User: Fold these one by one.
Assistant:
Number 1:
Amino acid sequence: MQPPAACQRPGDPPGGLGTACDPSCHTCGVTALVRATTPDLVLAAAAVGVLVVLAYFVGGRRDERSLRQRLVALAERLGADSIVSEPRRVEDALGHVERAADIAAETVADASSDAIRLRRALDTLPQAVVVTNERGEPVFRNARAIGLMGNRHGDALAAQAVDDLLAATAPGSSEERTLELYGPPRRTLVMRTQSIDNGQRALGMIAVIDDVSERRRLEEVRRDFVANVSHELKTPMGALGLLAETLLEETEPEISKRLADRIHTEAFRISRIIDDLLDLSRIESEESPPREPVLVNLVMAESAERVRSAAEQRGVEVKLEEPSPPVAVLGDRRQLTSAVYNLLENAVKFSYEGGVVHLSGSVEGTEVVIGVTDHGIGIPARDLERIFERFYRVDHGRSRSTGGTGLGLAIVRHVAQNHRGKVEVESREGEGTTFTLRLPLQGRADS
């Protein structure tokens, strides 16, 4: 047995053997013990290595079977069909998983395409759609909903109302609420919510917000129209009945003549209302009238000639300024003549005796501009937004005394819309009014 190696002492050269220590030194004792037992430890380590190899070999085969089973279970979770017999090799199980992964990838791709298609379809709806999860958190808004719930005050009210209605909707139920926003512009929103589930548990909520403002407006216009027509026809019909009854009992020729004149006037008024109603109905039904080049100069001249008799009776002069050189628009000549005539007729009726009405035509950029200006009683500012409504009259008494039906400006507006143009009005009460009809230019007649 070799003597123990000496300890390093202070002052000994590094790596040197140093000076031998006394037997009581622990370092020297441990070193000696290790050297003495080294051959035994080598034999023990070899035995342990053999045991580890055997354990690894046996355990590895068990782990391989467990791995195959787990791979088969994973493939089934991915949607693969169950297999009849368990794979014998890990490679076979991996192949089964790969096939299941391919099927799952195709399924995910199809689902993604369906989701995109559904989103695009919902974006095309005129209604706003909001979908929430089971916690009430919004997970989807279509384009209309994003636009509806903007930063304006009315939009913030709508968004809050939708949130409140979603919160009030119990699982398995639905709710509906109407919200009036007074604007401007005034809007009416109908909100409906419905819970979503899969038959076992709640999945969330869906809210559909429908802007029915235009529908409500049309319903009001329809009701007003029926009421106005009934009133407009009832008044002269009642007058006709009374006049006819009085005429039957009248013996004085002079009074009878006056009564007959009144009957003729009321009958003519009824005829005018019916004619204007038929014209308005025809123009509204012809949203896209036959389009052909129409010379604006001829439309203006024909309209001025038709109104000249009424103007002479009131002592009103009609001055015509045609565009030079002549210009044309694409449209329906009868509709355009009706529009210009109605503007001229209104100007003559509401001008003072001895007044002047100007009818002018010009070209501004890509538009033909037809202007009708009078220096009559004018229109109050509060009535300017409503004068194009059917049967609307600024002064009911004066309109009836002049034979107006309240439909002329409604006809003008529809003709402008049918020809992709617009009609504008400027007026000062007591000074006069200017109506401007703007139509797309078709081209100059001499070009």
Number 2:
Amino acid sequence: MRRIGIRFRERNFIWHFDPGPWDVKVGDYVVAKSPEGIAVGVVVEGPITVAEESCLQDGSAEEAQQRGAPLPTIERPATDEDIRKYRSHREREQKAKEYCLERIAAHNLPMKLVDVELLFDESKIIFYFTADGRVDFRELLKDLVKHLRMRIELRQIGVRNHAAMVGGIGMCGRPLCCSQFLKKFHPVSLKMAKDQNLSLNPLKISGTCGRLMCCLHYEHIVYTVLKEGLPKVGRKIDTPEGKGKVIRQNVLERSVTVELEGGKQIEIRYPPLDENYCRQALAKVQSYGSEQDEGATGLDQDVVNFSETEEEEKE
């Protein structure tokens, strides 16, 4: 089965689709179903051939395994008219954003406009914003409806969603995971940082959004599997050179550092895990993503979702 990656908006998630009978390549425009409905997107990955069982719907691995749902198929390659409409929408979004910023300043509202999205079918236009709390923007909503003459939706998002939409570079030097390939935000806890022997300094384990880095979660799964069979730090074990206490773990190398009774330190390596075992273990611990760990941060969800149409304003 073939698979392609599509990005519906600049600096946004990559969604995977089956190209169906069409021969599309990177850079081509296609029409497919986005989270908000039918939209035009740009092919940024593939096409590549992958195993049938791996062609599962986007989302967390455990959800895909439970559903067993295949990848959705694109509607069709975009026509010249579709591309023209797509580019026209980008221009209209920019103008709508400028007007909205003007009205936010005029009403002195404590909110930050992040992005504007006009749906492909022009059924509504969405304004994404962040704010510290609830905002009374009834007058702003009326101004937008009167100016744009269409259904308006004001959607408040959290700081993690904000980072995903805006994009940026993480402390690792790579683009933010949330703006590249993550499809949802999982809870992240300090316990995950401890298990990976990372510094608990908030400045070193927090992302640009100010929350714990998302990579702590999906890398924690690998550490959980590779730790199998390794003695814990502080445990006393027997070695070829005598008894000693484990003072360090190198999970990726599957080795531990042991301090012998005489003060000498030695490194003991453990054999690599069986490949089949790793697969079974990964399938088991992937359920972590759907569980709320103690001390974990909650998922960012829409706090407020207001909409109003021209007809409602008249009433």
